Amino acid sequence: MIKVGLVDATGATFGLRVTSNGELIVRPNFSDSYKVALTSDGVAVNVVPPIEGKNFIITAISVTSDKNVGVNGATIELYEATAPTSTVQTKPVFEFNVLKSTTTATTPILLKVTAGVYLNAETDDNNASITVLGYYNDVET
Question: Which CATH number fits domain 30-138: 2.60.120.340, 1.10.510.10, 2.60.120.1440, 1.10.1740.10?
Answer without folding.
Answer: 2.60.120.340
